[in-house]
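Feature request, filed as a ticket because there's no other form

It would be nice if the structure record came with a short human-readable summary line next to the tokens. Right now we just get the raw output. Example of a typical job, pasted below so the devs can see what we mean:
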Amino acid sequence: NKDKVKPYWLIAILTLSTISTILYIGILDSYSLFSTNLQFTIFASICAIQLLVGLHFYKNIQEILIYYYVSIMSYATILFVNYTVGTNGGIVFVLLFLLIVERLFKIKEHKELITLLLIIDTIMCFGIYGNRFLVFIKVLQLVTIAYLLFYNNYKKDYKKNNFIKTSFVVIILINVSTLPWNICKIMDCKIKSVHLNTITHLLLTITFISFLLMGLFKKWDKNFDLLSNKKDLDDDKTIMPIYYFFSSFIYFMGLIYLRTIDSNIGRFIILLTTLSIALIQSAKLILNSKKNNNSISGLLGFWIGTKYLMFLWTALSAFTDSHVHTMYYTLTGLLIALIAIYIGFILKFKSLRLYGLVLTILMVVKFILIDLIGNNSITRVISLVIGGVICFGISVLYNQLNTEIKESEQETKKG
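Raw output as currently delivered:
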């Protein structure tokens, strides 16, 4: 009775069958009949045949067969690839075989299993450069995860689709980040690592913007169309943390590259890519905060303001090679503060206005205590008076604009 009998005995039989196959191949190896890579090929082929036969004759235990043989074949493929071409990975070949088997036998699709093993395969290949076969594996990884995602959209099957979308982002970005290095190693290009960093950051930025254009972070439903306008679609809250994580990661990567790259052209490219990521993330944060009345929006203004302060200070350090105790940084900080206050009033974003006010005070304190530390007492006293006047003037302007906004809101309510 296939509805009641749970064939736990099958696991033992499958294990004994696998061990017997390994021992038999080992006996043949003792007579030097096969090379090691051929042994792995024979073992994986036997497992594949056993899987196909099992799926045909034992339809009530297909799940056990698939999970068991996919695991065994994945391990055998990893060993084969490592021994034959000297690199990691290779699980994607087993996953492609599984996709073909699912279509031939018209059995249940195992999207989650395939996606999870694809992530494992991608991580195993990360950090290895200069192997042509590895590039081929990476291309197959990209093709496979893209097929899963777009096939899901074609079938209008959105169950656990967020897991596939998240995996799509992770696999694509990881492979894109290593692509320039692999090509350079294979072609033996004499390109400096700093130039490769520039190309990598540019590709990551373009890829991330492409994700936005295709609506990857939007909520996919039956009305979703990849070719349609995505502006009216709601953001998918379950996948938005991935959006913020990778946009922040690319942003901080840009800051590091901006400081370490010694080419002005490279710095300019990194400057543009990092700024574009910062602007895209800031717009999303502000829109979502206003739309959802987010309770933690008080912290967003400080993060947005600090993000541009770090960006401008890093750019200043990269292009001028100046130190943080100079007035250039103070003036830049005051500029950010004034812009934050202005935009905060325009968008009615209180935390951004407060950030600008706090930053103004901090920059005046920096100007007095750090920038003028080597000057005489009279100069420092005069600077203290000027700093006090600046703080007082900005405070008066802030309160006046704040009062005008409150009065306009009251008039709007009365109207």
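Something like this underneath would help us a lot:
The chain has a mean pLDDT of 81.
The radius of gyration is 30 Å.
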